[in-house]
Amino acid sequence: MTSTEHASRVTGGVGESPARPDATLKTSGEFAFASDLVAEDMLWGATVRSPHPYARIRGVDVGPALATAGVFAVLTHEDVPGENAYGVKVRDQPVLAVDVVRYVGEPVAIVSADSPEAARLAAERVVVDYEPLEPVLDPIRAAHDKSLPALHENGNVVRHQRIRSGDPDPRAEVVVSATYTIGMQDQAFLGPEAGLAVPAEDGGVDLYLATQDLHSDLEQTARALGLAEDKVRLTMSGVGGAFGGREDLSIQVHCCLLALRTGRPVKMVHGREESFVGHVHRHPARMRYEHGATRDGELVYIKAQLYFDGGAYASKTPVVVSNGTALGTGPYVVPNVELDAWGVYTNNPPCGAMRGLGAVQPTFAYESQMDRLAEALGMDPVELRLRNVLTEGDRLPTGQVVDSPVAVPKLLDRLRGMPLPPSLPSGADVRDLPGGVSNTTHGEGIARGVGYGVTIKNVCYSEGADDFSTARVRLELVGGEPLATVHTAAAEVGQGIVTVQQQIARTELGVRRVNVHPNDTSVGPAGSSSASRQTYVTGGAVHAACVAVREVVLHRVADEHAVAVDALTLTDGAVSLDGEVLADLAEVLDTAVEEKREFHHRPTFPMDDEGASDRVHVQHAFSAHRAVVDVDTELGLVKVVALDCVQDVGRAMHPDAVLGQIQGGATQGLGLALMEEVSVSDGRIVNGSFTDYLIPTVLDVPPMRIEVLEEADPNAPYGVRGVGEPPTITATPAVVAAVRAATGRELTHIPVTPTRLLGLDGEEQQ
Amino acid sequence: MRVTATVNGRERDADGVWECESLLTLLRERWGLLGSKNACEQGECGSCTVLLDGAAVCSCLVAAGQVQGREVQTVEGVDDPAVHRAFADEGAVQCGFCTPGLVVAVHGLLRRNPAPADPEIREALAGNLCRCTGYEKILDAVRSAAEEARS
Amino acid sequence: MESTAPAPVVGTEFLRPATLREALEAKAQHPEAVPIAGGTDVMVEVNFGRARPPALLDLTGIAECDEWSADSGVVRLGAGVSYARVITELADRLPGLATASRTVGSPQIRNRGTIAGNLGSASPAGDSFPPLVASDASVELSSVRGARRVRAAEFCTGPKQSVLAVDELITAIHVPEATGPQQFSKVGPRNAMVIAVCSFALSLSPGRVGTGIGSAGPAPLTAPEAEAFLASELDGWWESPTPLADSVVRRFGELVAEATAPIDDVRGSARYRRHALAVLARRTLAWACAEGVAR
After folding, report:
1. A270: nearest Cα among A72, A45, A102
2. Which among C10, C190, C191 is the top mutation candidate for probing chain A, defined by the most A β-carbons within 10 Å of its own β-carbon?
3. Is the CB of residue C50 less than 8 Å away from at least one CB of chain B?
4. C250 close to A (CB below 8 A)
5. Does a structural domain hold residue A653?
6. Are A490 and A538 in contact (CB under 8 A)?
7. Given B25, B46, B127, which is nearest C6 (Cβ)?
8. Which residue among A373, A374, A443, B56 sits deepest, i.e. has the most Cβ atoms within 10 Å of its Cβ?
9. Are A433 and A476 within one domain?
């Protein structure tokens, strides 16, 4: 530390890796997650859910439930005062079912009682008279078979999007095709859905909750409650992970309804089983791809049909179809494209947002195709990719010109240059072998494989959405020292946006102390923590508000010293002119400075019927993964030995957090490749627990070598490029490609469970 | 029923405990010790890890009545600055829901084995699921805490 | 803030005997009481609302149950001995059971869960069954009426079904100490914390071959034909152990697979299980023989 405080450089700014402000509370157990909230006289809520995938409701008898000891309210759709419909894109989902239920787990009634046990018991005693109907379960039939019952007014197709570009009848010398399928993945965030609603004296309600998007929840909740938006106040509580699973409403309206009815605070918390039906999942998909290329490996065309099963309600299905279409040919130049994507309604569990939205599924398919094509051509898979890869100035199949650096060739080059892990020593510890401590091999049957995966993912909202965030920044003296307070509604879901906001304020305002105000709806919208967008848009808003605050401060000094404001700088707690301190910041802040700004990114535009758009997406992000696996070829067990990544992040705002995003994202991608699948049978989730829905443990994840490139996007604040999603997307095809390389099997369905790896999932031959 | 136990060195009791209630519920709802988290209710995630008479257990699988007269140490009672600091400094915390359980598990591990090798760390923490970090930085934190505790 | 303690809804009794005698009397008086030790199965059912037992019979306060002893080549494993203790204290005497115990759940589960509890849950996937069956262990069942012993292979009669009478408790397991190589191997789709897709245990000793198969039928199984085949192949082998011929190892695997009756479920297909058990049988036999050769 130098002699005076203001002369020392302010640390913890943009590009450094300061500790998270919430880390200490999280390690000590004091950090309050939504499930930790308590209030005096609090009641507990529980939800009555449909046991049928599709049924008519003939009647609901709440009598026995109301008679249960400790019960305060039992509500049905008749008790929804506002519009009994919500949805993030399409308002097609009832708050409480009216005359029909469309999936197993659909809320039909809600109860509140003075203990969780009493609430659960009362929920069991709500008698619903169902008339089961024949469910629609096959997404391809849902897309095309008009004889099936329409689950919603407009039929069973939520969105069909085409892309037609180039020659409709292209000729290629080498053609490869296959159908790829992908199971339903769960976000499996560790902190289940939870919230506490507190009725207010003004007839409104305060809701404390875990969400990804306060204002989207506010709009939908107020509408359902029939209340003005200023009567519904949402405050973010601790969020135990999200990954897309908290973009749709879960307990929000229910909790508020019960609180308003009983006049008491009401808490709702999902258990793990309920969480599996209480939030949307990643869309399962069936994708047929045909790739045509010249004999020397130049892509001529891609034809593809993609089916996304959206389940009972639309949720983010329209966006999944959009991304699946616009990004469905990968980070490659493809002159001729004929692609169709359908997102459909069925009576399966609703699917919506999950990390890598709409890009995870096609990336698995087109990267598998690139490997297949490389094999058909006798080419190295990386060479084939390099030969076709996009560069700045190229056009995507939508017609959009890529107008910022595309580092994919560098990503692949760097990745290829990384050292490979040493081969397995004989007598290796079982923990380093497939099967781990289960002691299935001592080296027998092991084959090693290496595989690559690359992706293109949009960042931020697309197709014409007004995508923006709002920040209020206040600079004042507290205890004689300048303190900046940043207030946004940006959801901290673990990714570290709270730290990034502090860093930006430190860098722009030259102050050491920065508080991040609790997120709530008393400031303008930030949009959701999704689409890898929060650092881009909320970072942009905080930057803009800080710049505005700085202008005011500099004007104060410029006026007092009669110097040009442009010549002044605000750094290290002081305002300086040509390196000479004119005023200590503390001297200038006799009154606080507060500014609020919105940041809107460049406009985007919807695709037309042929899939054309000048700018579907405001930004694209790229990552590449190389996986090395050891496969027990006799048992179908896989040990991922290395999962190395190179990613271009534009600007690493917080390098440690960037690594954390890549490592965590890659682990979810590994899970999808090998073990994660919500099994649905007749519309019912049959493995809704952490005993049967498996996510990777620390023994399943290898050391990861990661290189981060910073090729600034000139259009983005600080040059940032969204970080969170691409590594999730690329880990999956890389791992599967490595397993293919080790086994020679086709592996067109993920996750590649042991049974599937060995092709033993069919009927038993008697 | 009534349950009395020593929790973080202090005697606590509760009346009217439901006989099937878990230790996790007892800790959270009756004693206000909210550091232990409920994420799976079936001993698969480790978020509710506490030390029961010194051994790491999932408090969701211990019946409240089984701690009668026994010693429980929760994350609130883990006075282990090296572990806390390492988790914060190494970036091992993202959403933080798994963190208290991990802090207890790592505290228990390092007390048993002050210099664990990587495979030992992995085997010891296999019951603590983390969905955010990919575990890399958690391993860094354990190595760093072990080193700090040794020096 | 005041605590928001949940109120009891359904009357339950919590029985906390201090001695085995008291436990047996309690079980006789409350045959509906669910015994609980590690709680790793019972509490899951309770937490998920699938069970609201009218009474819990806590066995963790009974000191007699927490002990193991060895006498005349047989280990008597008290019902309260945890997996963790089997791993650290009995790996030399009961290597098959110790290896299996290490594959159970997480350290937290192994600190708490017991072999007896695993048997009591009577899941065909229970990890303790194959090694106990392979080494021909017996289960000691006690009640106020007296004690009896049941062979481990006959204890479980179907999924969640056993020969345990309503007034009985598992009080101990009697496991012959290993006098030859023992192996255990279990397939799960993850490298830790898995319920067995299938599992296999092998116990070799002069004059005896024992097998145990998990998760490949309604109850844990043995492969008697495989045992008989291998026993005859190993006749005289013990005097000068040599690696077995490939054909013998392969045939053993086939016979093990033939002894199974697996089903398709969410964890794996019947075809896979049959195939994998043949592989596990071959491998564990090879490891066991290598161990025999090395001795």
Report:
1. A45
2. C191
3. no
4. no
5. yes
6. yes
7. B25
8. B56
9. no
